[in-house]
Amino acid sequence: MFIAYLIVTVLAAAANIFSATCDFVRYKQVGIAMAKAGVPESWMTMLGILKAAGALGLLVGIGVPLIGTAAAVGLLLFLHSPRRVTRSASAPSTSTNLGS
Q1: Would you tell me how many other CB atoms lie within 10 Å of the CB of residue 64?
Q2: DSSP 62
Q3: What angle do CA 17, 65, 53 make, to 5 degrees?
Q4: Alpha-carbon distance 7 to 34, whole Å?
Q5: Mean pLDDT by 10 residues, the chain (100 residues)
Q6: How much is the pLDDT for 38?
Q7: What is this structure's pTM?
């Protein structure tokens, strides 16, 4: 089971390092996708730093589980919150006036 944990952790860290690198070098397709999502280009460096910190935290978490757990939770919140914000901003209003 520990081998599976190591594989998943290293793959997740590698994916986040790749994503952070794309942010740092301002990869064209990433810039286009972020512009479509309404993310200013000036945020790309900070987003890359957060992704890289999460990846480093995952790797450190192999030896210090509390840091790994914190990094995993941080990355989940980081990756989930923009989807929730985008979905709620683009969704039509669902409120109805049932009282009248």
Answers
A1: 11
A2: T
A3: 25
A4: 29
A5: 95 96 93 87 92 96 95 91 58 50
A6: 85
A7: 0.76
Round to whole Å and give the CA distance between 92 and 87.
10
Angle, CA of 78, 17 and 75, to the nearest 5°: 20
CB 37 within 8 A of CB 54: no
Residue type, 69: T
Rounded Cα–Cα distance for residues 75 and 13 (Å): 10
> What pLDDT score was predicted for residue 81?
75
Question: What is the residue type of 88?
Answer: S
Question: Quick one: DSSP state of residue 25?
Answer: T
Q: What is the structure's pLDDT at 100? A: 47
Domain ranges of the chain: 2-80
Contacts of 62 (CB under 8 A, 6+ apart): 6, 9, 68
In the prediction, which pLDDT does 8 show? 96
What span, in angstroms and rounded, lies between the C-alpha atoms of 33 and 21? Answer: 15
